[in-house]
Each structure stands twice: as structure tokens, then as C-alpha cells.
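Need the bound structure for pyridoxal-5'-phosphate, inputs here:
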Amino acid sequence: MKYIGGSFEFTPEILASNIIGEVNEQIGVSEEKLCLTKSGRSGISLVLKSCHKNLSEGWILMPDYQCWDVLTVFDDIKKKYISVNDKLELEMSELKEFLLDKYLRGVFLIDYFGLSDLQPYIEFIKSRRPDVLIIVDAVQAFLSLVLSVNRYSGADVIISSPRKFLPIPDGGLVISRNEHSFFIKKNNKNHNLNKQISYYITAGVLRNSKIKNLFDEETSNVLESLYLDLFENHRKLFDNKVEPISPLSLEIIKRSDLRAIAKKRLKSFKWVSDSLKHGNCSKIISPIYTEKLGPGLVFPVRVHSHQRDSLRNYLKSKGYFCPVHWPIQEKQLPLLGESSKRLSKEILGLPIDQRYDLKDLSKLLDEINMYKKGR
Ligand SMILES: Cc1ncc(COP(=O)(O)O)c(C=O)c1O
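Answer from helper R.:
Posting the output first, comments after.
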């Protein structure tokens, strides 16, 4: 069985490949405007620390559909939430109202899966409230940054997370409008980070042996439970502290051809989009984005008729690991509008990353059709 989706596996060969270019060169940003952090959250913390005085004198506006782990970074800032509709767009009428409040100090916009068109919001906000800080969460859009220059033009700060797209143990970034706006001191004594890197490398090596089917079934199952634990230990060590990216991640990014990776993802994305447009799998899933195409984090779909978890488990049993962005916990329910609640019960991400080719994706769609037939 081929394994599709799930965490990236680090393989040492990448360190023997040629240097393609520094991160800032590959994403087309000057070195002075870029700050490399440990994670997306670490990047958001850095921004919030620098703008804390201004933001804490008022409040920040955020979409009611988001990665809930991130909310803790904003703990000591007052927040209000704007509804997100079925297509993961902001409700414009609500936005107009919120912009009338003089205590509004910042707007946090999310580029969902790297497929949102945020430009109209940025322009609208800046035209009505040039004083308001616009922070773009482009954590899921790292490769969109690589393919399009001047994305989010007019935004004050952009945050992203290369670690979501590459086999690296950590890595986030902050792009500022002005030079030298953000800076992190080097921390050579961070043992936690070394531990985190060890977890990641070991998990990757084990996962790699598993997916290559190098062992008998029993050993393979043991390997799987070991690497799942290790990935979980690695994940748990991320926090909201402001810290720089590790030298290992930096080295891997420099040797990764980001443009080629982005193009491969884009091709896969278009292929799945065309296939679904022609009615493939339409009885069970429908795409959330029909127009905007990009080297997305995943291909996000809605699963009809309360079948999301059952389809997800079925696909898992066939070796396809499809993430859910994002499950909601009970305590967040009061913050969400109806549309966001529905979305979080129906959404599923189909893996389209650079490890797979069109044959793999075709088999994934076949499996989804098989699931439908089995009902
Ligand atoms: C939209 C969004 N923002 C921020 C984050 C946090 O990024 P990181 O996990 O690199 O801290 C995530 C994480 O999944 C995310 O999906």
C-alpha cells in the first residue's frame, strides 16, 4: 500500500543537493524585510510584541474560522470576530460596520490554504482606515509567496510557515513593509529545539522505512506507532515564544527548489480541480474553491451528508491521510457563526503535495468514488 499525505519525512540526501538560493531570494523579498522564525506562531508573537502598545489600546478583528491553536498568541489582546461565509470569504457588510469603530487597531486576515483573494479586503480597509494595522496570516500560502510577487500589496505585515510545505523540523517567517522592522536575537542555548529536531529526524527516518515497505507487517506497525509518537512529541514542543529558525531548516530551504515545488503543487491542484469540475466524486464531495487556483496547502473540499469523518477513516484505511482544518473544541463554539460551524464539520483536505504525481491523485479520487459505491 502506498502512503499518501501525513507529515513530511526528513531524508539526509537533501543536505547533499546543490544550493538553489537564500530564502529571501527564492521568495523575492529583500533580506532587510524578512525575519525567519521558528514557526508561524513564533512569527505572530514577534509582530504582536512589536505592536503591543497600539493593539492593546483597542482591539483586533479576526475571522471566526481559524487555526484555534493560534488564538493563545493573542491572549492579552482584545478580539472581535467577523463571520466567514461558505466560500471562506469575509462578510463585507460586517467588515464595514467594524471599520467604523475608532478603537479598531488591527485586522488579522487569513489566506486559507493559499487560495484566498485578500486584495479587495486590504484595499477596502486601507481606503477607510489607513491607521489600522493589517496583518496577513499566509501560513498556508508559503508557496503562493514564491509564485507571485507583490501578493497582499498594501498589507503591513505578512506571516508564513515554510514548515507546512517542506521536510523541515521548524520554520516560520515575517515579511514587513519597511526594512529592519523585526529582529530576533540568536539563541544558541536552546536545548528544547535540539530535542525537537531529534524527534523530527528520527520520526522521518522511521516513517521513510515504513512507506518504502522495507519490513514485515508486524515490524511495520511498530514503526508506525513509534514515528507517530515522535511526531507528536515534536509537535508538542512548539509554543508561542519568539525564536529564530534552526540552522538545519535554513539549510534545507536553501537547497530546496521552491519554484519547482510550487509549480508541481499547482499542476496537481489544477488537475484535481478540473477532475472535480467534470463531476468526478460530485455525489460525495465538492470543492470549496472553484475559481482561484494556487499551490495550495491541500485541496479543500466539503464532504456532503455528514459523511466527513466516515470518508476520512475509509481513506485512512486505504493509506490516504487527509487533514481537517480545523476541528473546533467546545469552548470555541460561542465564537463561531453558523457558516463556520458547518464548515468545520464538513471540511476535508485532499493531499496534493510535491511527493505525489497525478497517478497518485487519480487513485485517491478513485478511492473516494469507491467509498460512495460502498454506501
Ligand atoms: C492559518 C494558520 N495560522 C497560523 C498557524 C500556526 O503556524 P505554526 O504551526 O507554524 O505555528 C497555523 C497552523 O496550522 C495555521 O493553519
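Comments: The chain has three domains: 18-176, 191-241, 258-374. Residues 39-41, 67, 70, 110, 137, 139-140, 161, 163, 172, 238 surround pyridoxal-5'-phosphate (CB under 6 Å).
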